[in-house]
Write the structure tokens for this entry.
Amino acid sequence: MYRRYVLLGDCGCVIESHAMEDHLNRSERHIAMYTCPKCGTIIVNTVRYINRIKIKYKEIVEVNKRVHSLDSKLIHMRVEVQKKLQVFCKYKDESKLFFV
Ligand SMILES: [Zn+2]
């Protein structure tokens, strides 16, 4: 039985094809672009994996949208809480003056 190898167009590393498939399959669990198992270069221009790369990229874009949406909601909530705290503190300070 002979082995096949893949030349990664992004970094020029040569990886045994089954080892590369295993590496990509393990990477499915992570929200990150695929990388070369030897040098860590992000893989975006290797034709053999272009369909997987496109799917992965879409997943990452979707996660980024969700995170930024949540960020903007949290910023809005933070501003609202600060406004309410200012009103509360002002009221509290006025109450102290009244009761002194
Ligand atoms: Zn490499």
